């Protein structure tokens, strides 16, 4: 079997630059990460132009998230079987074509269908990237640095998406938030074909469990749909959908225990590091997505910032994250160990969210948003590479694509869960304050305060879980 670290005829270290390969992988991943957030600021313009209702507008986001979150696990496993380079380049091409279709959309149906196609391409691209990074850098020190670079791109991409969405929409129009992907995608695709080392994969016969694939994909898609639609669906409908999703997951687990060639070997979950890190990530990402989206709403609806000003206000976060991840993360993890760095980062995230929970209706950006934003940025810069390294160190080489897909899946589930829970709490509390006679701004700020405080509790839960489950045993876990 050919791996990403070498080809049968030519060693990777002589023929290919691993760091150039990392740049190409990061470029592909950045496109999908940006697109998950770039549309948020442009939503009012999209609604006005295409005539979306308030409920229908949510599907501009949901149509992307459902296939993206639902297909990550399957795409990761298929990458192990058919070749990760093949999966990555195919996903990149599909994502680029779908972006153009989004950019030229003239109707609601066309935009939603193209967004769903983007979600498929994004899942194919994102699912295998982390596994490819791990395979490219087997040596612990280099792997830590590579993961720091990849994590910095991912973290910065979320905040940059908010900025670019506002800038492109205000300077040109909303169509360009999608059309900008065409030149980036073409260059990244051509570079990937030329730079990335070939890998054949294990072959579909080693794990083509189609019934299992159908069960887990259906379960994940239904889970994401239920979470992101929980604010609009009735409680009884949510309960029924949740039960169906659980039944599909149970059927998948039974299938994997009995299948001769399972899609997802249950041995993967025997790894304490892999399972624990994914559980911690769900809570941590739920917290950070709460900050990113509800924080942007606070700046717009309470402080009165416009689209471009809001995007600019959030730029310090990706700058701090990028500088710290690229300059200090790998060395810090190498010195203190991933476990200690992760805990320190989570402490800062808890503190940042607690401070945001005090942001008042008459607050200011400099006093009430920037300081906790910087705490969150420093905390995330420390925690994310450490958590990623711990998760991937718990996977076997032949399962790195699957582990990568799983890690990306829990990001989507965590983000969707955080948005659903925190936005619902904020809206409900704001309505209660309005009914009690509070002004619109005060009620809105009060709802956001509650959401931030609950996010601080969620982050504290991630801290406790990490401290217990990922605790070092017989040495300094995760130290490179």
List keywords for this structure.
mainly alpha, Growth Hormone, Chain: A, 480 residues, disordered C terminus
Give the total of domains: 3
| CATH class category name of the largest domain | Mainly Alpha
Structural class: mainly alpha
CATH architecture of the largest domain: Up-down Bundle
Number of helical elements: 17
CATH homologous superfamily label of the largest domain: MFS general substrate transporter like domains
Q: Determine the mean pLDDT.
A: 80
Rg calculated over all Cα atoms = 21 Å
Task: Choose one word for the global shape.
Answer: globular
Element pattern in H and E:
HHHHHHHHHHHHHHHHH
Task: Please state roughly what percent of the residues sit in beta strands, choosing from under 5%, 5-15%, 15-25%, 25-35%, 35-45% or over 45%.
Answer: under 5%
The biggest sheet, with number of strands, parallel, antiparallel or mixed sense and barrel status, is: none
Distance between the termini: 27 Å
- Count every beta strand, where a strand is a DSSP E run of 2 or more residues: 0
Task: Output the CATH topology of the largest domain.
Answer: Growth Hormone, Chain: A
Stretches with pLDDT under 50, minimum 5 residues: 1-16, 474-480
Helix content: over 70%
Briefly say what this structure is.
It comes from Streptomyces griseicoloratus. This protein is an all-alpha fold and 480 residues long.
What would you say this structure looks like, in words?
The protein is mainly α. Helix content is 80%, strand content 0%. It contains 17 helices and no strands. Helix 4 packs antiparallel against helix 8 and helix 9 packs parallel to helix 16. It is found in: Cell membrane. Its main location: membrane. GO terms for molecular function: transmembrane transporter activity. It is a multi-pass membrane protein.
